[in-house]
Amino acid sequence: MKRIDFRSDTVTQPTAAMRRAIADAEVGDDVYGEDPTVLRLEARVAELLGLEAAVFVPSGTQANQLAIGAHCRPGDEVLTEAGSHILHYEGGAVPALWGVQPQPLPGQRGLLTPEAVSAAVREDNIHNPRTRLLSLENTHNRGGGAVWPVERFQAVVEAARKAGLGVHLDGARLFNASVALGVPVSAWASRTDTTAVCFSKGLGAPVGSALVGRVDLIREARRLRKRLGGGMRQAGILAAAALYALENHVSRLADDHANARRLAAGLAELPGVTVDTASVETNMVFAEFPQAAHEVVALLERHGVLTNPAGAPRTLRLVTHLDVSARDIDEALSRIRRAVA
């Protein structure tokens, strides 16, 4: 029985064409700045995002942490939405690595308001940490794959600018947002000081992210990458996969979004299962089941459907991606229907 894996879009396998690109990659020593494929990737992603420079890194977590380290100093504070990736899924790195204090702000499906940002900025007082950075996330993972409307994003960034804050965007799934709204990734990224993008989620590369931003911040990020052990040598074999993904796997994200809507509609028809189908904007579906989430995960796994709990006691997250077809969606719904009957 074929396993249908909805745990994350990180589980994708490189396609045959991507593997050929990896095998044919021209390489050099990236720590010396001599890998031509890495250099092409960094130039291309900076161009797409409308920013000055980029640095290729192993993971999205490292990209986010390099940004925080480049923007902030010990004793500073970063504002971020309460469900953000940097708070929940990066091992406590913000205070552990940089001595920086995060201030979680309540949002709606991961999105903030200008008023919330302005109110959170601390007064310049020796008793307070210095509010230095605003970190946003698009799409927002715990917000169900929610997409920032461009106008709202701009308004929140303007509020941060008025307070003298730097702005970082965790854009691990920024290309999903771009395809969902039909606007370029630069519509968000060009308004920031730094933006992180991931190649190993919906884009289907096996590994790698980029931190993109102002030249001075990227120069500092390279230094911090070395400190954290993120300097890679003949990394062109990885960058080649990311370049292939940028050239061939962006527009097809629309298929993942359509499959997510198909999955959500089917799950919503099952007795006892609750899905807000209107909230499915990209490639994530959050479904509430009658039983405890861990019990449903185990039950579905016995039927060859892999999922993850979503944090709430009875809610699962299901993520569509390159390796899940429309036919797989229908087969998964059939198996889930039998499992929960």
TrEMBL record:
The record ties this protein, via InterPro entries, to: ArAA_b-elim_lyase/Thr_aldolase, Low_specificity_L-TA-like, PyrdxlP-dep_Trfase, PyrdxlP-dep_Trfase_major, PyrdxlP-dep_Trfase_small
Organism the protein comes from: Pseudomyxococcus hansupus
Residue ranges of every copy of the Aromatic amino acid beta-eliminating lyase/threonine aldolase domain listed in the record? 5-287
**CDD domains reported in the protein's UniProt record:** TA_like
- UniProt GO BP: glycine biosynthetic process; L-threonine catabolic process
UniProt record similarity statement: Belongs to the threonine aldolase family.
Query: According to its UniProt record, which cofactors does this protein need?
Result: pyridoxal 5'-phosphate
* Keyword Nucleotidyltransferase applies: no
GO terms assigned for molecular function: L-allo-threonine aldolase activity
A Pfam family annotated for this UniProt entry = Beta_elim_lyase
What is one cellular component GO term in this UniProt entry? Answer: cytosol
User: Which NCBIfam families does the UniProt entry name for this protein?
Assistant: GntG_guanitoxin, PRK10534.1
Q: Which residues carry this modification: N6-(pyridoxal phosphate)lysine?
A: 201
User: SUPFAM superfamilies from the xrefs?
Assistant: PLP-dependent transferases (SSF53383)
Q: Which keywords label this protein? A: Lyase, Pyridoxal phosphate
Q: Which Gene3D superfamilies match?
A: Aspartate Aminotransferase, domain 1, Type I PLP-dependent aspartate aminotransferase-like (Major domain)
Question: What is this protein identified as?
Answer: Low-specificity L-threonine aldolase
